[in-house]
Each structure stands twice: as C-alpha cells, then as structure tokens.
TrEMBL record, chains A, B:
Coiled coil regions, renumbered to chain: none
CC annotations in GO: cytosol
Short name of any one Pfam family annotated for the protein: PfkB
Natural source organism: Geomonas terrae
GO molecular function terms attached to this record: kinase activity
Residue ranges constituting the Carbohydrate kinase PfkB domain according to the UniProt record: 30-273
Name of this chain's protein: Sugar kinase
InterPro entries noted in UniProt: Carboh/pur_kinase_PfkB_CS (IPR002173), PfkB_dom (IPR011611), Ribokinase-like (IPR029056)
SUPFAM superfamilies attached to this UniProt entry: Ribokinase-like
Length: 305, 305
C-alpha cells in the first residue's frame, strides 16, 4: 500500500565536527519519503521554490516517489542552516528562512484522497488538520511535531493528536507536551489525549514505544562515525511507516518490527551528510542491519533458562 | 559458587525530590552484596566504624552475607551526603567523610583466598590490585571505578583493568578513560587495555556491553517513580555477578542473561531509598520483571518475518 507524506522539502546548510555542506537536499518530507521508498510507493505533498535543483527532483523520482503533489512556486525553497557540536544529539539552528514554505497550504491531489497510510511531518498543526480533513478514511496516520508548535498552538496540536495512530516525537517534546518529567507518566498523559501509540525518540539511546498494553524498547545502533544527525527522526518515521504500509501488519509484533526497520534506516542515514547514504543503500544492507539489531538485543526468556 | 566483594560500607544522607533520609545504610559493597545475595552466597570485605548500627549487620547477615571480612575499627563509618534534582541521573555530592575508610587496607581472610568470583567495587586502584594479588586464581573478576581514580591514578587503574573480565563503568567514565567521545571507539580503546568485556552503564537508558565479538544493548526498565538512584550501579553489578556465579555460564548468552538480571535488580533498588526495596524483594518478583524485560525488548528476527 502506498504512503502519503505531507511536510517540508528544504535546502539545508549543515556544519558538524566532520565537515560542512551548503544548500544540500533536506526537509522532513524528503527524509521521510526517501526512507519509506525502500519499502513501498510514496506520494509526496510539499512545496519548493524556483531555485530547487532539478537533480533533487530527479533523485526523488528515481526512488519511485510520486511528485504530483510537489508544487514549484515563485520564490526560494525553505532553507535551514544549523550546526552540531561533538554532542551530536542537539542541533543549534543558525538560520531559518521559510521562504515559499511560509505560505504552504497543502492541497491533496484527488488521486491521493483515499490514501491508507498518511504521515503528517512536522508542520503547523492547523495545516496537519487540514490535511487530515482532505484524506477520506486513512487506515494509519502518523504525526510528528516540535517544541515550537507545542508552545504556540497546543490546542490545535492536541486535536490533531487525538486523531492519529502514532505520535512520533522526541523525549523533550514528550515532557513538554505532557508537563510530566517522568517519561512513563508523560506517556500515559499523552495516550490520554487520544493517540493510540506514542513513539519517543531518544537519539543515540534509541526509541521507546508506549500504548495502552505494552512498552517496547529499541536501542539505537552503536555507530563509530555519526557524520550528520539531520533527518534521523524523519528517516526513522519513514522506515517505520514504510514497513507498516508494506506489510499491513498492525499487530503489536508488526509495530515492533516496523520500529526496528525505522531504527535501521535512521542508523544508515546519520553515516553521511544529507541523504547521501540513503542514495547508495541497498535492501540487503537493510536486512543485514536488522539482523544486527536482533543479535544486539537478543537474550533468552525465563522459560528458556 | 560464592562471591567475594571488596568495597565500601557507608552511612548515606540523601535528598531527592521525593524525600530526605539521614545516615541510612549505603556503600558500594553493601548494595553489591545485598543484590548478589539473591543469587548466591556472598563474602564481604569492608570496614565500618564504632557508630555502625547493629541493625545493619543483622540485615546483612540475614541475607546470608558472610561478615568475617567486615572489620569494625575505632572511628566513624564512611559518610556520604548527596542530593539529586529532578534529573535523577546525576548526584550532587554535598559532603564526603572517608573516616575509617581512609586507612582501609583490605585483608582477605584465608577462607576467601580461593574465591572464584570477585568484585572489586569502586576503591583506590592500588587497593584493588592488592586484593587481586591476595586472591589465588579467580575465575571471574569484575571491577568498577570512578572519575576521581581515572584522573588521579590512571596507570594503577589500567594495570587493574588489564587483569579483569568485566569493567563496569558509566558512559562518562568510559569516555574519560579512553579519551574518545564516540562510545564505540571508547569501547575499542578500553578493550585494548586488556579487559575482556566492557559494560557501560547509561542510567535510565540502560546498559551496553562490548567485547571482542559482540555488542549487547539492554534498556533500563521504564519506571513511574524513581525515588533514589543511589547504589543503582552497584546493585546492577551485584545482580550481574550473582547470576553469573549462580549459573557458572560464561557464554555470551549467559552474560546477556546476567546483564538483564542486573538491570532487574537495579530497577527495583531505585524504587525506594537506601536498600529498603531490596529488603522486601522476593525472587518471584525478580523473575516476573525479567519476563517484563523480555516482553519489552522482543521482536521477530528477519528469518521469522
């Protein structure tokens, strides 16, 4: 089953201890769509400016990402400039130029209106709601957000959250959204808002998934070189939803596998700048790293002792 | 097989956001021995002063901890005073009074000299080496240390490390000891010092184990209430070594199970102040939480998909 992604396509300028890249391909929807494209077909709704290089649209098309919903409008593409120190967990934003993204009003092409799998990447929650209202009856909706929306539009955000199956946010955002310092209490409060499953991203420490019945803990893959963490969360979400859309298995077991595939994709993405690593990645490499995750976390149960 | 523990027995004064306790039972060897006592017999070598309450020795004896090696000498017991904020990961030390611990020279009773399982809790690495030299041919040695010894006695510490099977330290200590910010590189450098296995404690994020062949990642148990993290690392090490000594299974699988049992013990210990939770803990509760760890981390392998 194909996935519909709504979010940002950007040109990023990134500085890490390992190098500098200027105006390279970025944006939440870009990372999400490319990662998901390893598992299923993807339809992208986003906006770029006249400066957006043709090579990037060619790359996205080469990944079987349908660009019917990618509008190109007068003006410049969303531009983000950031820096990471040796602690690669947190970006320092140096510049944000919304440009054409400032007046982005996502219009879902008629052909996408019956999308079954929908990801609302990090955009204004009022726009996320407009998208939700344009998609007839999605089977699975996942949603991301950020500290800015949690503080500036909490009510609009909570309405969106009450309608989604998976809220995928980081640890600090979970605490901010719930007002609870303890993560278990934060998770309970957020589930109380109506979302079915909460996935908490913890950077190099992995992911925790909470729902009414169970908790699942997945580590991050210990990497010797993290070149650029930009887009890791979106790449995770892309692998996660891509695998769910591929299998249609929404059981607890299916969701857990999807979380590992998401973690696998994120672990590859941070090995190089921008989407460079995903450009060379093959499915056998993905399966091999999934096996490494299995080896890394396996231990015998009490009954097997 | 019994375990020999050498380390500190202390009286702690602790303040957390959830309460205050004055001069309660503490010390690395105390937590270690009590935790290990759920799995095997324990022999304790440590020192206390004349002020050490009889109720504490009665408690330790009640756990089948042999106190032949616990000397009671003139003076006051080692006293630590610390405080935790809402971020319970890091203690702020307010006072440290070494007292009788300052002139502690561990003498291993003759009956313990053929100990097979030895834990060198966090003491001066020169004393750790003296202990190593008094124990004839231990099968398994585990060792802890702290930032103070890494910076003040790095050479003595490295000699100890080259002779142990398990170095159990926290993430910051691993980085400090190796001079590497990246944990995978830090682990390789530390394994290069001659230790067979490195266990990196990451507080609420769990544990990573590195050796020449494999990496194992274990999460921490997500708890709704963490009352007092004091002794969590020693309680982990106690459960870990206690289980190894109980089973004698030093295979990769056996070590992984031991890491989970250690994590189980630590997760209980932080639920109350001092050793209060361990005082009421039962083995069925330990097994039940081991099962919860299994449930929390399980997912199907690629071959099972």
């Amino acid at each position: 089953m194909s996935i519909l992604v709504v979010g940002s396509v950007a040109l990023d300028s990134v500085e890490t201890p390992f190098g500098v890249r200027d105006r390279v391909l970025g944006g939440s929807a870009t990372y999400f769509a490319t990662s998901a494209s390893f598992f299923t077909d993807v339809n992208l709704v986003a906006v770029v400016g006249e400066d957006f290089p043709e090579e990037h649209t060619r790359f996205l098309s080469s990944r079987n990402i349908d660009l019917t919903g990618l509008s190109r409008v007068p003006g410049e593409t969303f531009h983000w400039k950031g820096r990471y120190g040796y602690d690669l967990n947190e970006a320092q934003t140096l510049e944000t130029h919304l440009n054409v993204f400032e007046s982005f009003k996502p219009v879902i092409p008629a052909a996408y209106a019956d999308a079954q799998y929908l990801i609302l990447a990090n955009i204004d929650p009022e726009l996320q709601m407009e998208v939700l209202n344009q998609v007839k009856s999605p089977r699975v909706v996942a949603c991301d957000t950020m500290n800015f929306w949690i503080s500036s539009k909490p009510e609009a955000l909570k309405k969106v959250i009450s309608r989604v199956d998976f809220l995928i946010i980081n640890e600090g955002e979970a605490r901010q959204l719930s007002g609870e310092a303890n993560l278990v209490k934060a998770a309970r409060a957020i589930i109380g808002l109506g979302v079915k499953n909460l996935i908490v991203k913890r950077g190099e420490y992995g992911v925790l998934m909470f729902n009414g019945n169970s908790v699942f803990a997945a580590p991050a893959f210990p990497l010797e070189q993290v070149f650029d963490p930009t887009g890791a969360g979106d790449t995770f979400a892309g692998g996660f939803m891509g695998y769910l859309a591929n299998t249609g298995n929404l059981s607890d077991e299916g969701i857990r596998q999807a979380i590992i595939f998401g973690s696998v994709m994120a672990s590859f993405n941070v090995e190089d700048f921008s989407l460079e690593r995903l450009k060379t990645l093959s499915y056998p490499e993905i399966e091999a790293r999934y096996r490494s995750f299995k080896n890394m976390t396996h231990f015998q149960g009490v009954g097997e002792l």
